[in-house]
Every structure is written in C-alpha cells, then in structure tokens.
Amino acid sequence: MPRFYCSFPLQTGTEIELPENISRHILVLRMRAGDEITVFNGDGGEHLAVLSEVGKRSSRALLKHFSPREAELQFAVTIAQALPEGSKMDWIIEKCVELGAAGIQPLMSQRCVVRLSGERALKRLQHWQGIVAAASEQCGRNRLAPVAEAVDFTAWTSRHDLHRRILLTPRATQSLSQWATHQPRQAVALVIGPEGGFTEAEEALAESQGMLPLSMGPRVLRTETAAMAALSTLSALWERD
C-alpha cells in the first residue's frame, strides 16, 4: 500500500486535503477514489486512509483507522557524518534512514571540500529533510529522523550532552563488531570522516574529548560506505528479540 508523509496533524475520522506533490504521485500510480493509502506525520503511528477525491492538483482522503505500528531500532543511533563531495551525503542520509538511524549530524572537518553557511546551508538542510521523509515513506518508518545543521567538527567534539560517541577510524586497534559483541545495546553516535578521513590531530582531539576509536575491520571503507556498514553491524548484533 502506498505510504505518504503529511506534515500536519492527522485525526481519525476527518477528511484531509493531500499536498500537491502527493496528488501528483497518486496520479502517476493511477489510483482512483476508493483506493486505500497509508499516511503518517512523523509523530509516530500511521493512518489507513481512503481516497475520496483524486485530481491533478488536489486530492482528498478520509482517515479511517490509526495504527500505533513502529519500525524503529531498539537503540538510538546518530550518524555524525563529515560532509563528502557531490551528492554522496544524499545517498548516506537515504540509506541510513532506511537502516534505522535516529538522527543525522552533518560535520565540517579539515579535509571536507564542501563548506556550508547562510542561505546555502538552509537550502541543503531542507533538501536533506525531504530525503528523510521520502526514505521513511519507502521503508515503513513512522518517525522522521531529524537532520541537524552542519557544524564544525572541532566545536562539536567539545559537546558532552550526547550519548557514547564512536569514532570510526582505520587506526583503531579494536573493531566495532568486537566492541559491540560484549556491550549491551545502547544509544550511540557513529562519527565518520570525509574522503581521506579525519586528520591525526582531529582524531587526537576527539579521543581527548572521550570518543571511542573503533575500526570497521581490516578493510578501509569509503566514507559513503562506513555509516551503512556500521549501522548494519550494530543491528545484527543488538537488534535481537
């Protein structure tokens, strides 16, 4: 059943007007009045709805039933990703949302080619939030992972209001899988460098601020691969009934 994100309150028994982008999607799917869809607003749970009107620019649906179903990980994982080149960040956010990431923290480190500020930063943030919504529609999640504003890595290392932060680095002597095997599931932040990784000075600073250095094994992963591999590793080890 097609799933759609609606950024407004939803109440069972009411009829809602669907946003224009959803109406266009419904037309592409060749849906008609009487067909069923699922809608959610990111606050948790989802509504079964029946299309009451289908138009080129406007469609309406009646919210018939609410389900509290969730598809979240049993532990919160924040992806703290140093900005990569090109559209790689789009790919990273999309796949990490599909794998269950609870939040995304973009970072600007010394080797980052991309730098964001002002209007450009705002537009990129809005773009990423759209990717989160689309990925959540696809994968069945009913809560939207927040994307924070991009911040300087050095400044971010000094924050101490976060859960355990894991610095993924090939220089580490212990792997993520070795560590996680002997740990209870818990909230963590996975910290990933850009192309070329963090500098030795940045890693030293991170460790001095309490970050735990762990590797992904004997192979050096690309920046767009590391977060997905790490999330999958934690899911395999910790997401057990």
Description:
The chain has helices at residues 20-28, 88-98, 118-139, 153-157, 176-181, 200-208, 223-238, and strands at residues 3-5, 15-18, 36-40, 46-54, 59-67, 77-82, 103-108, 151-152, 164-168, 188-192, 212-214. With 241 residues, the protein is an alpha/beta fold. The chain folds into two domains: 3-67, Ribosomal Protein L25, Chain P (Beta Barrel); 77-238, SPOUT methyltransferase, trefoil knot domain (Alpha/beta knot, 3-Layer(aba) Sandwich). The protein has a six-stranded parallel beta sheet, sandwiched between helices. A five-stranded mixed beta sheet has the order 1-3-4-5-2. It starts with a strand and ends with a helix. The model has no long low-confidence stretch (mean pLDDT 94).
> Number of helix segments?
7
Low-confidence stretches: none
Q: What structural class do the secondary elements suggest?
A: alpha/beta
What is the CATH architecture annotation of the largest domain?
A: 3-Layer(aba) Sandwich
Whole-Å distance between the termini? 27 Å
Bin the strand percentage.
Answer: 15-25%
Integer average pLDDT: 94
Helix content: 25-40%
Primary descriptors:
11 strands, single chain, Alpha/beta knot, Ribosomal Protein L25, Chain P, 7 helices, alpha/beta, 6-stranded parallel beta sheet, 241 residues
Architecture blueprint of SSEs:
Elements lengths: L2 E3 L9 E4 L1 H9 L7 E5 L5 E9 L4 E9 L9 E6 L5 H11 L4 E6 L9 H22 L11 E2 H5 L6 E5 L7 H6 L6 E5 L7 H9 L3 E3 L8 H16 L3
Parallel strand pairs: 1-3, 6-7, 6-10, 7-8, 9-10, 9-11
Antiparallel strand pairs: 2-5, 3-4, 4-5
Helix pairs in contact: 2-3, 2-7
